[in-house]
Amino acid sequence: MHTDLVAALDIGGTKIAGALVDGDGALLVRAQRPTPARDGAEAVMGAVGDVLAELRASSLWARAGAMGIGSAGPVDASAGTVSPVNVPGWRGFPLVDRVTEATGGLPVVLIGDGVAMTAAEHWLGAARGYDNALCLVVSTGVGGGLVLGGKLHPGPTGNAGHIGHICVDLDGDLCPCGARGCVERIASGPNIARRALDGGWLPGPDGDSTAASVAASARAGDLVAIASYERAAQALAAGIAATATLAEIDIAVIGGGVAGAGEVLFAPLRRFLRDYATLSFVQQLRVAPAVMGTDAGLVGAAAAAWTSGVWGTGAGAGAGAKGVPAGALR
């Protein structure tokens, strides 16, 4: 049997998604379950097991040569464990061992969800064709990942590129991570909304006080809402410029719910980047919205499996396994 597919899992605080993915990034078989995040470690693993069982029931399963997992973090790829902030029952949970067992010995590659999004955008999305890229997920938190020298750079534990916890305000607010003035503490959706409310912004008649509602007010000209997004954009620009200066990044791709604000976010972000990315080798830095959408986690997990070196090495690998997909996956 040719092993010309990979299996993928995207594990978050609200859903666990799975797919069988081909070398062009097409999701051929899908499965999904809600995440029972408050119900304990084994309940969550049970949902993962249900997703895997549904994938294994497909006639295409035998063609899978590896499993890629993108998980909410922190993750520790070196230990094969996960401790997602939004899944309290999993602390140091041995996810790689458990998934290896549940798949009958399929080789498993674990990365954080920000790195997974990065892998997807580099393979098929806005960062395609760029050898050095930073991709960000700006949502409830701020995560990210790096492509360096044309290859995904997850780092030893799978967390490299976690821009959300770069300090951009030395005496800023205390972040839940324990540091002060982190990008996430300023630019995440909940903090955009918090800052607007603190400044006197009032939600509309529907009571919606999310960052998306703040963005709608900003588009309508509300000065407090505009100021909150400007502050978020400034924090993101400072973090992106610092990363670009350190690693010579060519493009920063921004996804996640906050990126849905469009030019409310991107216009001030580009303006602030001119203030922070001042050295000659970062002045051409591009900023672009992500394009992979809700499938980014699965596509990115699959990309990590394709490029990891473990693909096709498991117990069921056939001698006829085809090569790693061409193109942006290198």
Description of the structure:
It is a single chain. The protein is α/β, with parallel strands linked by helices. The chain folds into two domains: 5-114 and 294-307, 2-Layer Sandwich (Nucleotidyltransferase, domain 5), CATH 3.30.420.40; 126-289, Nucleotidyltransferase, domain 5 (2-Layer Sandwich), CATH 3.30.420. Helices cover 34% and strands 19% of the residues. It contains nine helices and twelve strands. The protein has helices at residues 41-56, 95-102, 113-124, 183-187, 189-198, 211-219, 223-247, 263-276, 296-307; strands spanning 5-11, 15-21, 27-34, 64-71, 75-76, 81-82, 108-112, 133-138, 142-148, 151-152, 251-255, 286-289. The chain has a five-stranded mixed β-sheet with strand order 3-2-1-4-7, with helices on both faces. Strands 10-9-8-11-12 form a five-stranded mixed β-sheet, sandwiched between helices. A hairpin with a 3-residue loop joins strand 1 and strand 2 (15-21). Helix 3 crosses helix 9 (296-307). It is globular, with a radius of gyration of 20 Å. The two termini are 25 Å apart. Mean pLDDT is 91; it is low at 315-330.
Key attributes of the depicted protein:
2 domains; disordered C terminus; 34% helix; alpha/beta; 330 residues; five-stranded mixed sheet; ROK family protein; Nucleotidyltransferase, domain 5; ATPase_NBD; 9 helices; globular
Largest pleated sheet: 5 strands, mixed
> Mean pLDDT, as a whole number?
91
Shape descriptor reads globular
- CATH class of the largest domain equals Alpha Beta
Let me know the CATH homologous superfamily of the largest domain. ATPase, nucleotide binding domain
- Secondary-structure element sequence? EEEHEEEHEHEEEHHHHEHEH
Distance between the termini: 25 Å
